Every structure is written in C-alpha cells, then in structure tokens.
Amino acid sequence: GSNVAGISMMVPTDLTLSQFRFLVPEADRIALLVGEKKESEMVQQAIGTARDLGMQTEVFDISDLQDLRKSLDMLPKKCDALWLLPDPSVITTDHFYYLNNLSHRARMPLLTNSIGLTKAGALVGIAPDLEAVGQQAALLAQDIRKGDESHYGKRIPPGKASVILNRNTQKSIGLELEEYSLEFVDEQIGQ
Q1: β-strands 81-84, 29-34: how paired?
Q2: pLDDT tens-digit readout, 104-114
Q3: How far apart, in whole angstroms, are the C-alpha atoms of residue 82 and residue 73?
Q4: CB-CB contact of 108 with 82 (8 Å)
Q5: How high is the pLDDT of residue 39?
Q6: Less packed terminus of the chain by CB within 10 Å, N or C?
Q7: Which of 163, 120, 180 shows the shortest CA–CA distance to 11?
C-alpha cells in the first residue's frame, strides 16, 4: 500500500557499474544478461549508465536455459565482461553454472549484485552494506514513529555498497588489478 516504506536491497546501477569500471577499466563492452524483466527500468538504467561511462552494451535475453546456451557462443565475441542483473528468471543455479564456467573459460569478468554469487565464482559483487542498511532502516523507523510520512510509498536506495572481489576468479581469468584499486574492495575472497 501507500503507507509502505523501506530500504531497497538493490544497489543503484550507476554505483554498481562505476565501481566495476574502477576495478576493471579495460572492460568497454559489457553484456547485460536479462530475462523476464528485459524492459524494466533497471535494464534501461544499466544501459544509460554504461553509455555515460563510455561503455557499449549488448543485451542478451536468457529467460530459459536454451536461450542461454545459444547466447553463450556469442558472448565472448561481442563482449569483454558480463553483468548478471538481479532477475530471478536469470539467476538460477543452472544459469549461474553455465555463465560462471563461460566467464572462466573466456577469461571474462562476471559482475553480480550478490555476495553469494561472488563467493561461488563471479569476479565482483557490488551489494548493499548490510550494517549500513540496518542503520538506515532504524533511522527510517524513527522518522515514521515521529509521524514523518514523507517516506511512505518509497524505497530508499542503500546508503552504502560493499565491493566484494573473488581473488581466485581474478587469478583464474588472468586479470591484473592495480594495487591501489584493492583499497576500495571491502571483502576479498580467496588467496
């Protein structure tokens, strides 16, 4: 209803892609892997953000495993990084298995919005900082309790994101990172 307010668990696309671009500046052509939500505002924002950062995008509809398998052959020829947008029709165990294997074989970075998928083999995850989200939610609850209705009907983006880097994947795909860029990584997995 209109009296609902909360903190979104989705990091804005501009923050996600700018963090990724900072870590992997040579990634100029990024594949957006989408499914049922291919016409969503999030996909349009991702395309616009990529354009603003000087990146080209290719949108791949991988709603089902057959679509995914057909697209896999084209991905390394058209793109040099993969962005797995948060879409439950795309992020399935089978899809992630194939995409993760492709990214390793093709030596392509895989970007996600999930700590769990980064631990499972994606190169980078840009996810909400859970402690910061908890603090935001507490402040929001205080405002509402005081009678502030300005938040009603809104989802507030997380105030802080965490950058998670899988060092094992980095090594597997042969990606060299600038040492100073590691200072902006909140959590490193492996090595």
Answers
A1: parallel
A2: 988 999 999 98
A3: 13
A4: yes
A5: 64
A6: N
A7: 163
